[in-house]
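Good day; I would like, with your permission, to put a structural problem before you. A protein sequence and the structure tokens that stand for its backbone fold form the material at issue. Thank you for your consideration; the sequence and its tokens are set out here:
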Amino acid sequence: MYGFADVWERPALVRGWEEWFTDLVERPEWVHYLCRRFTDFYREDYTRAAEISRGRIDMYFLITDLAGQRGPLISPAMFLEFVAPYCGR
């Protein structure tokens, strides 16, 4: 097993949660930019790990925390716009 990729929560931690939630509404292009950058970083990291391990990695992790104690942090529509596209890139 390898990895700890997180293409949604990590960018939120960089921005700060309050700013991140504001960005989702007011600056979606910025959110997509950060998510793309993190996705590109993890893709390169995982590619290098696969090369170095010569195929011995059976599972790569992609994680994120999208909910709190009372429910989801974002709507299903926001999930489809800001999270889903970066999970299959």
